[in-house]
Amino acid sequence: HPAARCCWARAMAEEAVAGPDALGVGEVQELVRRKDELEAQIKACYAVLEGQKGVGMSEPLVDAEGYPRADVDVYQVRAARHNIICLQNDHKALMLQVEKALHQLHAREKEKQAKDEAEAQAEAMNQNPTLPQPFARVNAVTPGSPASISGLQVDDEIIEFGSVDTHNFQTLQNIATVVQHSEGKPLSVTVIRGGKKLHLGLTPKHWAGKGLLGCNILPLQR
Question: What is the pLDDT of residue 105?
Answer without folding.
Answer: 84
